[in-house]
Design goal:
- This protein is mostly helical and 230 residues long.
- The protein is built from 12 helices and 3 strands; from the N terminus they run H-H-H-H-H-H-H-H-H-H-H-E-E-E-H.
- A 3-stranded antiparallel sheet has the order 1-2-3.
- Strand 1 and strand 2 (192-199) form a beta hairpin.
- Helix 6 (84-94) crosses helix 8 and helix 8 (115-133) crosses helix 9.
- The relative contact order is 0.12.
Length: 230
């Protein structure tokens, strides 16, 4: 397997001057916590920075791309592009999931496939790239990875999984559907919520996200997928 530095150089023409920034971007909190004596930095601060530059670049792109769309439509489209699920997909597309450093517990519990972790990883990488190469380098990278998907129209349709689930479950009559927070984890500034969907007081699926709304949508999506398999 190629090293991360080789992959970035070959696939995207990116060579970091400050290798420590790249290393930090790919270090999850679980790994840093398991190696506290080494005082390893994790990627949460870079994630914060990457989120900001991502929002800016995508906002400008949409503003210029769709001069006749109203603010509300632009906001909805942007939210679909920068949502956790989309960013996790970009991480996998770039092969970043193979390189993220996770703690043993997180690794065993399937963290390498968790959308929350992979979405945060993508943002942390953008933050590291911004610090090392500047905003033009970030924009160039997004033009290679994200914008082609937008150009294909992959984010034009916003799906409300909660509404879709309700419609499917209530097709033969009313059922009681509720969403309950079952777990909260992480620091106050970066909480992760886990939510379960209950149908007539029976849990049928669960999901996680940076907000309760995100977690509810993830749980509803999982429920729909399970129903389609039955």
């Amino acid at each position: 397997m190629k090293t991360l530095e080789e992959k970035l150089s070959i696939d995207y023409g990116i060579v970091f001057d400050d290798k420590s920034l790249l290393d930090t971007a790919f270090t999850h909190t679980s790994y840093a916590n398991e190696h506290r004596l080494l005082k390893i930095s994790h990627n949460e601060r870079l994630e914060f920075l990457g989120d900001a530059v991502l929002q800016l670049i995508i906002s400008r792109y949409l503003f210029e791309k769709y001069p006749k769309k109203p603010e509300g439509d632009l906001s909805k489209l942007r939210s679909m592009i920068v949502r956790e699920e989309s960013l996790a997909g970009f991480s996998c597309y770039c092969g970043f999931d193979a390189y993220v450093k996770l703690g043993k517990g997180e690794e065993k519990s399937g963290g390498r496939e968790r959308a929350t972790i992979l979405g945060d990883l993508f943002e942390a990488f953008l933050g590291a790239l911004l610090l090392d190469k500047g905003v033009d380098a970030v924009e160039n990278f997004l033009n290679q990875v994200v914008i082609p998907q937008v150009e294909k129209g992959n984010y034009q349709k916003v799906r409300d999984y909660k509404t879709a689930l309700q419609e499917q479950l209530q097709v033969n009559g009313d059922v009681a559907i509720s969403y309950r927070v079952t777990k909260e984890s992480g620091p106050a500034h970066a909480k992760v919520f886990e939510v379960s969907v209950f149908v007539n007081d029976k849990a049928i699926s669960s999901g996680s996200g940076k907000s309760k709304k995100q977690a509810e949508q993830a749980a509803a999506k999982e429920a729909l997928e399970r129903l389609s398999e039955d």
